[in-house]
Amino acid sequence: MAENAGEVCQSNLPNFLLSIRLKYVKLGYHYLISNAVYLLIVPILAAVGLHLSTFTLENLMNHPVMLKSFSTLVVYLTTVYFVSRPRNVYLVDFACYKPPQCFMTSRQGFIEKMSDILDEESLNFLKKISKWSGLGEKTYVPAESKIPSSVPMSINQNEAKMVIIGAIDDLLAKTGVKVQEIGIVIVNSSAFNPTPSLSAMIVNHYKLGVNVITYNLGGMGCSAGLISVDLANRLLQGQANSYALIASTEIISSAYYSGKLKSKLLSNCLFRMGASAILMSNRSSDRRRSKYQLMHVVRTHKGADDRAFGCAYQDEDEDEKKGVSLSKDLMAVAGEALKTNITTLGPLVLPMSEQLLFFASLIARKVFKRKMKQYIPDFKMTFEHFCIHAGGRAVLDELEKNLDLPKVLMEPSRMTLYRFGNTSSSSVWYNLAYSEAKGRIKKGDRAWQIGFGSGFKCNSVVWRALRTVDAAKEKNAWTDEIEDFPVHVTY
What we know:
- By secondary structure, the protein is α+β, with helices and mostly antiparallel strands.
- It has helices at 2-11, 16-34, 36-53, 57-61, 64-84, 107-113, 120-132, 153-175, 198-206, 224-237, 262-270, 306-309, 330-349, 352-366, 393-402, 407-420, 427-437; strands spanning 90-96, 104-105, 139-140, 182-188, 213-217, 243-249, 275-281, 292-301, 312-316, 322-326, 385-388, 446-453, 457-465.
- The strands form three sheets. It has a nine-stranded mixed beta sheet, sandwiched between helices. It has a two-stranded antiparallel ribbon with strand order 2-3. Strands 9-10 form a two-stranded antiparallel ribbon.
- A hairpin with a 3-residue loop joins strand 12 and strand 13 (457-465).
- Pathway: Lipid metabolism; fatty acid biosynthesis.
- It is an enzyme of class 2 (transferase).
């Protein structure tokens, strides 16, 4: 095998001389275009500076109107800047819940848990799907030896309290923040929304104050965690010196499908227990101890399109058994949503050089009708870390291809899917935790979180690392086994 691999490598070897030349030509082009503004402005500022240097204090005093106008303009522009600029919002820290070992199950073990509610044909389908799902042998599901056809409400509530409170306890221990300081609580869970709400459960458990602002987001799918970040950011813009607590989860015991439709059985294969807790702050005093600063949030909603709206849809089958159907259009819809999202995100984050290449490609295709592929901007020039929702192997394969990402940048998402499964809206945080545990987060690094959800939605959040995360001191869901990763995933 090694010999064959060597032959393949040799046959695919590029012309290194040409590659090196093109590399430096491209780097020179990107540097020139990205710094064009500065290259143009510096000579102008130098000329203005030389001109002003000819003015003495006596000259200025002899022109009081000009001095007054200049002073007024400076005061006005300074005031407008400080009044209109948004508050900086920081991610103090976050935590991902790791269930006790008694909840760990293999792929075959999970199928056996479902043996009482599915017929033989459905079980065989699960076995086949599980082989290429990308999930490993140590994911977590509720501990019942057999999953009942009708899961009692108490099991759902126990799971919710275990994963949500577990994640929040870990977060509070890491940050040292007192619960009385938290002014905003946001919870997102799509499938399970009891009364009282999950946010009320948090208030009751921690005995939060009467003035705490709470939100409970339901039915918004796997991208709801990033929607919660956007909501927290908007609330923190209007509430000074505040902390916002976000809990993201999916209570899978409430969403098992016990029928025969293959489109609904897929979710049984992919979803697993998990939750994340995030603490955000707008306090300037928190900047030094925070891990990240929020840079951008871009939300894309394709719900006006009927095909997009129905590609992940919860309803009942002919036997009145409830489940979520995943249509064959899902990947195509996700791709379209991602293109729309990055079209908005691109101008905010990409260097001008990449924007010009994208614009030139668009003009060539649309105006001059050239038959050529749409140019996909090189987001590797902007982001050091990609936290892609671990929705399934097919999703990750598609994004790896479309964004032209190397294996190492896809590693956090693939390992999250392998080790923890699809933990819904919390999966992007398990991704980031993986990179932290590996010691890959350096000061100034930028991380791009991408989430997809029913409706259909694609949401992006961009963070910038305020400090280097010391893996030796970091304690998260990956810490005690990070040396075992990455692993080779077989399908």
